[in-house]
Amino acid sequence: MVYTLLDGLTHKTRQNIIKHGDRMGRTALHTASLEDKVEVADLVIRSADTEDGDSVIYCIDDDGNTPLDGAKSSDMAQMLLDGLTVKRRQRHIKHRGRRGQTAASEALRGGGRHVFITIWQQCDEST
């Protein structure tokens, strides 16, 4: 359904929708991550311009959170991290939101043990 909607748009319009945030600055990728819609998140990432792939994944909302901060499953976290360059992945893992939390601490706070483990394994691979 989402693919059909995006497919019918011009390239410029598609890119604007992908990068546009709601009143809280959350993009389509933030929402897909928060709702654990892995297929939608994958489509958003693949629909982004190649040179913008990192910036779409590493976009920050008004609370200082990235889509990784809202990941509800290890599949979502892994997909988001896999879409980043190694340098950007390291920066993303260390990123702290406005309350000082990292994606790993958000995962633990929210009971997402598997998400935490996925992020932690990426820390080991990135260093």
Summarize the SSE layout with pairings.
Blueprint: H1 2-7, H2 11-19, H3 28-34, H4 38-47, H5 53-57, H6 74-82, H7 86-94, H8 103-109, H9 113-126
Mean pLDDT: 81
Give a quick account of the main beta sheet: strands, pairing sense, barrel closure. none
Count of helix runs: 9
Query: What is the percentage of strand-forming residues?
Result: under 5%
CATH architecture: Alpha Horseshoe
Question: Uncertain spans, ≥5 residues at pLDDT below 50?
Answer: none
User: How many extended strands?
Assistant: 0
N-to-C CA distance: 39 Å
Looking at this protein, list some descriptive labels.
globular; 9 helices; 127 residues
Report on the architecture of this protein:
The protein has 127 residues and is mainly alpha-helical. It has a single domain (2-126), classed as Serine Threonine Protein Phosphatase 5, Tetratricopeptide repeat, CATH 1.25.40.20. Helix content is 60%, strand content 0%. The protein contains nine helices and no strands. The protein has helices at residues 2-7, 11-19, 28-34, 38-47, 53-57, 74-82, 86-94, 103-109, 113-126. The radius of gyration is 14 Å and the shape is globular. It starts with a helix and ends with a helix. 34% of the residues are buried.
TL;DR of this structure?
This protein has nine helices and no strands.
